[in-house]
Write a structure and sequence with these properties.
Elements (H helix, E strand, L loop, with lengths): L1 H8 L10 H12 L12 E5 L2 E4 H14 L6 H28 L5 H9 L10 H9 L9 H10 L2 H26 L5 H12 L1 E10 L12 H10 L1 H4 L4 E10 L4 H20 L3 H8 L8 E2 L6 H6 L8 E7 L2 E26 L6 H20 L4 H8 L10 E6 L5 H9 L4 E2 L4 E3 L2 E24 L4 H16 L4 H8 L5 E9 L13 H8 L13 E3 L4 E11 L6 H27 L5 H8 L4 E9 L4 E2 L3 E2 L1 H8 L10 E2 L3 E11 L8 H26 L3 E2 L6
Antiparallel strand pairs: 1-2, 1-20, 3-15, 3-19, 4-12, 4-14, 5-11, 6-7, 7-8, 7-11, 9-11, 10-11, 13-14, 16-17, 18-19
Helix pairs in contact: 2-4, 2-8, 3-4, 8-24, 9-24, 10-21
Length: 706
């Protein structure tokens, strides 16, 4: 989007592609036949529909886009780019054949209409159109067709082709999605069944024994039982390719010497900033990242500015201000008048309105005057008095309303603030429709707008500090050739923080909370890396000021049945089954002709409850949670009969049916039919997409290369 803005501002000078997202999105047509696969299997980044994709082919697409940006992409941008290019392959090999088979096309006229025609053609969910609509706006904030027209007249042909192809893809996807949605049909019989399920109601009495009444520690579970359950439910527990990594983080914190030097440097920058007559370029050259440089009203300016100075004049410099080792310097480059007033105020509201008797209103006013006098006598007590006597949500903040556009306030309140031309408490109560206000002026009303240049710099460790951290972490790696040695040596250094990243996916980029750890993750999935291996070197994540020392502590193989990897989840299920057997057996042995008698015989942990007007399609039992099978058993129990004990998700149930009220007959099921159609429409695209991807047999091996 920044590139689009740059293009627009430079009139006819159009450079680079519109955006990383657009460029990646439309590359399919350009490269579809450029390079065909080849080479050994080890050089394949994956396959789709049985067609292999070579590393060279995939990387050429990546390199093409990087070239458009002069190669100046950050690692997170490269990760995003690789993901988008991979999705392009899926598009061309999975979706495009579907569009071709259905005869779906997008004409040049449609593209023109989307860009410069009827707004109904512009899809608000379109990624490309969102970027264009944000970048080409008129003074009211609406999409400016004339601006896009001017851009279109000067943009290079290659760039326009990229936008057209991107819009074409999105339009095809939209047409396909709409076709699926509008192909959805629900019969009247289905609508009637749905209506009956929702409107058939039952009243029941039930006995309930939660599984939680039996402590896990009292139930013996063997590995053989766990393994047997896993194999009986193999489809649920077939593993994906994952790795578990134990890692030690050594933070690279700035030293006292680093802090002293930085403080001196930032003070010098502030002095030079005050003297500079090119505020914006000075700030851009010295700030860690770009900051907005436009006229802003006081409500948009950082709060810390106003905490330091009572007023802002052109040329004023505020700072450096420190917040968590990030230092900020502000300079007011220009000031101009707006058409509305802004002020920073606080108040204490004593609520009173016309629904109150006059005597009650008088009492409120008298109390407000009493507190006003206390405020005038002791201005520093305003916040504490607001917390004690205030009657609106601001009292917890000491009555602070903060900076606001005064047009948001009612007339009497607004006028009172405008008339007060100095800092302090207004000496008279302000009466509004909400009651009586004691008003404190923190910054008087003003129409001023401010253009502020901002420099933000973060205190970072110096080279000698980084070098010392590297020596420490490198020494640890060299002395720790095994996992056991690493653990033992790490205990000797309290600065090392131990973490574990469990079941990492092959294409993951993060190691716990640390971003950009692909080097370690790629090593963990590399052929030859074994559980217990220690990575051969510390990895510096310089943008996060940390060194990572890693070891592989666990691995699961695709489609493997691995008990250790699933032990906790399987144990929960086996415990539940065994508890169910224990509870059912005890209930069957319990004596009694009523549920209450059976519960008494079972013991105090059995509960007897009632359910009223439960719908047939309900999946929960009130007071017991999600138990869909139990609801089914309840409706399957005839009136006057008692069900056998049945176990479900949270415990064991026995039901007695009090009554079942059938759904009333209706003549027309059109409404129910339409509701079902709408529900099915929303799911159609998701399930079709899921089915196409499963049938395509997508095999992603990018993690071996990136």
């Amino acid at each position: 989007m920044a590139i689009i803005n740059s293009i627009r501002k430079r009139s006819g000078l159009a450079v680079l592609v519109i955006s990383l997202a657009i460029a990646a999105f439309i590359l399919t047509d350009l490269f579809g036949k450029l390079v065909q696969g080849g080479g050994p299997e080890s050089m394949k980044v994956g396959s789709i529909q049985g067609e292999s994709i070579s590393y060279n082919e995939f990387n050429q697409r990546i390199s093409f886009i990087e070239a458009q940006y002069g190669g100046a992409l950050s690692e997170p941008q490269r990760v995003q780019l690789r993901e988008q290019v991979w999705n392009d392959y899926i598009f061309e090999k999975v979706y495009q054949p579907q569009y071709d088979a259905l005869g779906l096309t997008v004409t040049p006229r449609e593209i023109r209409e989307i860009l410069q025609g009827d707004s109904l053609m512009r899809d608000p969910q379109s990624q490309i159109m969102r970027q264009l609509m944000q970048s080409f706006r008129d003074s009211t904030g609406k999409y400016d067709k004339s601006a896009i027209g001017r851009f279109w007249g000067s943009a290079p042909k290659a760039q326009k082709d990229q936008i057209r192809q991107g819009l074409r893809k999105e339009r095809l996807q939209k047409k396909y999605s709409s076709l699926l949605e509008f192909s959805t049909y629900v019969t009247k019989a289905e609508a009637k069944r749905d209506y009956v399920n929702k409107n058939t109601k039952g009243d029941f009495k039930f006995l309930y024994v939660p599984y939680s009444t039996i402590a896990d520690s009292t139930v013996q579970v063997t590995d053989a039982e766990l393994d047997g359950y896993m194999r009986d439910h193999a489809d649920e527990y077939k593993s994906k390719e994952t790795r578990t990594i134990e890692y030690y983080a050594l933070s690279i914190d700035p030293s006292p010497q680093d802090s002293t030097k930085f403080a001196s440097d930032i003070r010098e920058i502030a002095k030079d900033f005050a003297k500079s007559d090119k505020d914006s370029s000075f700030a851009v050259a010295r700030s860690d990242d770009a900051q907005p440089f436009t006229f802003q009203d006081p409500t948009k300016l950082p709060k810390e500015i106003w905490k330091t100075v009572p007023t802002l004049a052109k040329g004023a410099v505020v700072g450096p201000l420190n917040q968590k080792n990030t230092y900020t310097i502000y300079k007011v480059s220009d000031v101009k008048e707006d058409t509305v007033y802004y002020a920073n105020t606080a108040h204490i509201l004593f609520k009173a309105d016309t629904t109150m008797k006059q005597s009650e209103q008088d009492s409120v006013r008298n109390k407000a005057n009493e507190i006003l006098q206390k405020v005038l006598d002791n201005p520093d007590e305003f916040a504490s008095l607001a917390k004690t006597y205030g009657s609106d949500g601001t009292k917890d903040q000491g009555g602070e309303l903060g900076w606001a556009n005064l047009n948001k306030y009612v007339k009497d309140f607004k006028e009172a603030i405008i008339k007060a031309d100095k800092v302090g408490t207004i000496s008279n109560l302000v009466k509004t429709q909400f009651g009586y206000h004691i008003v404190k002026i923190i910054h008087p009303a003003s129409k001023k707008l401010y253009k502020v240049a901002t420099i933000k710099k973060t205190l970072l460790p110096g080279k000698s500090t980084v070098d010392a951290a590297f020596k420490t972490s490198d020494k640890l790696v060299n002395e720790s050739k095994t996992l056991e040695a690493l653990r033992a040596n790490a205990k000797k250094n309290p600065k090392l923080i131990k973490n574990t990243a469990n079941k990492i996916q092959p294409n993951a980029t993060n190691l716990g909370s640390y971003q950009g750890a692909r080097e370690i993750i790629r090593w963990a999935f590399k052929d030859g890396t074994k559980v217990g291996d220690v990575f051969s070197q510390p990895v510096e994540l310089s943008d996060q000021n940390v060194y990572i020392i890693a070891a592989l502590t666990g691995a699961t193989i695709e489609d493997e049945l691995n008990l250790d990897a699933n032990r906790d989840a399987i144990k929960v299920k086996v415990l539940q089954e065994k508890k169910k057997e224990m509870i059912v057996k005890k209930l069957e042995a319990a004596k009694g002709s009523t549920l209450e008698a059976i519960a008494k015989s079972y013991g105090p942990l059995a509960q007897v409850k009632t359910l009223s007007a439960v719908a047939y399609d309900n999946s929960s039992v009130q007071g017991a949670g999600f138990n869909p099978a139990a609801v089914g058993y309840a409706f399957g129990t005839k009136k006057g009969q008692r069900s056998q004990p049945v176990g479900d998700q949270t415990g064991v149930f026995m039901f007695e049916t009090t009554k079942v009220t059938p759904a009333g007959e209706i003549k027309d099921y059109t409404k129910q039919q339409q509701e079902l159609v709408n529900r099915t429409k929303n799911l159609a695209r998701f399930f079709i997409d899921q089915a196409l991807r499963e049938l395509a047999d997508i095999n992603d091996k990018r993690y071996k290369f990136y």
